[in-house]
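Morning - flavin-adenine dinucleotide inputs below, output right after.
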Amino acid sequence: IEYDTADLVILATILTVTVAYFTKGTLWGKPKDYFTDLSLANGAARAGKTRDFVKKMAEMDRNAIFFYGSQTGTAEDYASRLAKEGHARFGLKTLVADIEDYDFENLDTFPSDHLAFFLLATYGEGEPTDNAVEFYEFLSADDPQFSEAADEPLQNLKYVTFGLGNNTYEHYNAMVRKVDGYLTKLGAKRLGAAGEGDDGAGTMEEDFLAWKEEMWQVVCKEMGLEEREAVYEPIFKINEDDTLTPDSENVYLGEPNKHHLEGKGRPPYNSHNPYIAPISKSLELFTVKDRNCLHMEINIAGSGLNYTTGDHIAIWPTNSGRETDRLLSVLGLIDKRHTVIQVTALDSTSKVPFPAPTTYDAVIRYHVEINGLVSRQFIASLAPFAPSEYAKAELTRLGGDKDAFHEEVSSRYLNIAQVLEKLAPGQTWTSIPFSLIIEGLTHIQPRYYSISSSSHVHKDNVAITAVVESIRLPGSKHILKGVTTNYLLALKQKQHGDPNPDPHGLTYDINGPRNKYDGIHVPVHIRHSNFKLPSDPEKPVIMIGPGTGVAPFRAFVQERAAHAAEGKKVGKTLLFFGCRNSEEDFLYKNEWPEYAAKLGDSFKLITAFSREGPKKVYVQHRLLEHAAEVDELLKAGAYIYVCGDAAHMARDVNATFGKIIAEHRGLTEAQGEEVVKRMRSSNKYQEDVW
Ligand code: FAD
């Protein structure tokens, strides 16, 4: 939602009156509570603050600003880490800044002895993240209007850039590359290389670590900085408060914001404020040794949420009891897990990433990503707090050795608590400041799912199709359990009458804080997407969706079948689906004939069962076999849709279409690829990949 100034003033006034009314003055005089009203927090927070970062830096006596353009939180996390390191190691006076919170007209007045860092993720098809749109539009304008219209307006600006991208997408790191180009063209001077991290290759963290070491050397030389011995300074103050208990009504036990604390939440529901939705149906589409796939229907009636076919639903997960206990135990906090803590930011520019007062248990269970890939830098930062000299030396070794870290930690899918357990068996890590845990682990992120129902047919019920993540390494007892999908599995088990749902001993607290999720509920929000059927149902469509990539195509076919049943003419609807085996993991096997009965000749399902024949067959092979028909449909204006695995399948399918077009139209392969590219830019080739 975009607000103009008048809206912001009105919003701020409403917020003030609302807060005054509901709190009856109890909040006056306390530090700003970011979570007081999340539906308004961003707009209201922006209303009263300056958007002039040069002025703000002067007022706060800062000389380095770290702007982040972040969609899922990684760029923001990197900005915070870099700012912290810049301060601890080199004495920079740092400020972390959401790029959306500032105007850039006076970037030309940025002092030459200051430094600006830009940590920018690329989103979707080479686009800026939502919070970086305004900044990007300003900088990419033909003639950006700076406050002092000089020839090389940014000649005083020294800057550093790092981009977060995914090389499986065509416009790899487009955002940082373009921003870097514009800044240089306007006369600014970049220090160090323009860093690029690649999520597609799984090397984001290592790319970041390698880039930043060289970058700091250049920055030190250029800015005359000297490295000092880094001493840890906490960002958050944690106070145990024995005047409160978990029963005190103002204590957050995992509720995402004040409305949820006071009741069960209130609309508008969005990425800051989930709807606690009832699950109307759940089942396993298949269950074979070590693999299963869930189908769930989530009811959004009366929530004010809506969706259209092709959108995504976000599920807000809860960490498992087993892993919550493991981390609390290893930190020596298990006995005081329900002690109430007050958490405040020690620096006015940092915000506490969850609402407080709360408990150690609630922070670990609901707010922190405790299972994910461990950061090597974080491991190194724990060394001073190790319970033994051996553990300290090991942390320093692993923190400093990329290959050893990969071999002993990340490739074994260990989480942070497992690493600490392994380095100091039977000991507790009581010296680690809890602030460091909050700083070093990322905030838990909702996971997205491509909605597998049609909004035309099931307006109020959102279906998802999710494979339960369960990865066992050969020769190891440890099984990596996906956070969200195993939580969903537990919900399914409970719905089917299991009184103690416990997939693989994970023990989820599925009734939620204060039993607010009882009766099989899950916190969700909806994200609208551009992955859409043509508005004219007569247009032909070609869909490629192996595995759970079939999710949105179940929705597409369901919708077209409904149109056909309503007497509408429906164009050719071709679906390529692939899985291992027709008897094992053929998703919605029994539904396709129902849709075919309604759609008649216009529907065709083409399957590729990779493990049935002597040779492995994938969807792209089937596509080639049907090349003539595919090309005919393309000539008749067909739209192409690809969903599922970004790393391999989507690329291969793209190349196969290029090949088919080239062969059938007497073009070179390069020209065939060019045709596919043009289809992409005119939205006739759409991808929904992950
Ligand atoms: P997580 O806990 O997030 O783990 C995921 C992976 O991270 C693991 O498999 C592993 O590779 C890695 N990992 C985790 N912990 C570690 C560790 N300690 N060390 C090393 N590696 C680790 N999925 C579907 O099934 N169906 C869909 O329709 C669907 N649609 C999607 C649409 C979009 C737009 C996106 C972005 C994703 C979609 N996904 C879909 C994927 C889904 O969002 C989740 O990523 C997936 O379900 C796994 O979530 P999880 O929380 O269970 O696993």
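Note: Residues 1-47 have pLDDT under 50 and may be disordered.

O.
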